[in-house]
Amino acid sequence: MATASPSQKPSPDGIFGVLNAFQSSAARKTAHQNPNAHITAAGWAPLLAVAKEKMRRRANLSLIMLGRN
Predict the structure, then answer these.
(1) CA distances (Å), origin 46, targets 14, 30, 31, 35
(2) Which of 9, 12, 36, 39 could covalently link to 43 via disulfide, CB atoms 3.0 to 4.6 Å apart?
(3) Mind listing the pLDDT tens digit for each residue in 20-67?
(4) How much is the pTM?
(5) How many Cα atoms occupy the beta-carbon half-sphere of 5 within 13 Å?
(6) Side-chain half-sphere CA neighbours of 29 within 13 A
(7) Around 19, how many Cα atoms within 13 Å sit in the side-chain half-sphere?
(8) Cα–Cα distance between 12 and 14 in angstroms, integer?
(9) Secondary structure letter of residue 43 according to DSSP
């Protein structure tokens, strides 16, 4: 069996270029499908805390309005 000459072997740059293109394409598709995909878990924490506080306040207000405080 003949071995491939150095000019016929795939270069690491070419392989990584294909991987980078694939990852970039996947990132673009994800960002298109979910505009908040760029927000990390640490970025969501303050947003969730604010949402929970708003819901807690609304629940308390509802109980007060119903006279069940």
Answers:
(1) 41, 23, 21, 18
(2) 39
(3) 666 666 666 655 677 776 777 778 888 889 999 998 888 888 888 888
(4) 0.39
(5) 1
(6) 6
(7) 6
(8) 5
(9) H
Q: Which residues contact residue 39 at a Cβ distance below 8 angstroms, ignoring those fewer than 6 apart?
A: 47
pLDDT at 1 over 50: no
Type of residue at 53: E
The residue extents of the domains of the chain are 13-65
Tokens, residue 56 = 């807690």
Angstrom distance (rounded) from CA 49 to CA 5 = 60
Burial of 42 by CB count in 10 Å (0-12 exposed, 13-18 middle, 19+ buried)? exposed
